Amino acid sequence: MFTRIACKLIAAVLCLLLLFSTAVLAEEPAAEVEIPDYSKVDMDLSRFSEIMVYGTLYDMAAGAERYAGKTVKLKGYIERVIGNAETPDTFYLVAYDETNCCSMKVRILTHETSKPLKTTIEMTVCGVFDVYTENGTNCCQLMNAMVM
């Protein structure tokens, strides 16, 4: 009697192992993450003065169709907006006008292989320009951004 139960148990375990190994073998290997090549930049704003960056970003938000998909390089200080349980933290590069009364924020969506963004130092980032709408206003963002 014991032998019969042991044989059934061993058979069940072997079936489970066979099913598991078949499922594991059927999985496709993870695709390699392609790192964006930003050696060619369409717009290098990292060399502009802060007021020029502010003005250019304002124009880019207003005329998004002319700039969407362009590779843009920016330099500035990063601001972090802390999220909650439903939304992750959001990072922005902030550019001020000459009087520091107005600012343009560029949301930074980093590529998964990028170095992390830091809020205490000036950073240079490069990514693909896009515009999103928030509360009826066009807002700038860099997608697949990499810290340079």
Descriptive labels:
five-stranded mixed barrel, globular, single chain, alpha/beta, 6 strands, 148 residues
Mind explaining what this structure looks like?
By secondary structure, this protein is an alpha/beta fold. The protein has one domain: OB fold (Dihydrolipoamide Acetyltransferase, E2P). Helix content is 28%, strand content 35%. The chain has 3 helices and 6 strands, in the order H-E-H-H-E-E-E-E-E. It has helices spanning 2-26, 50-62, 64-67, and strands at 43-44, 71-81, 90-96, 103-110, 122-134, 137-147. A 5-stranded mixed beta barrel has the order 2-3-4-6-5. A hairpin with a 6-residue loop joins strand 3 (90-96) and strand 4 (103-110). Residues 6-30 have low confidence and may be disordered.
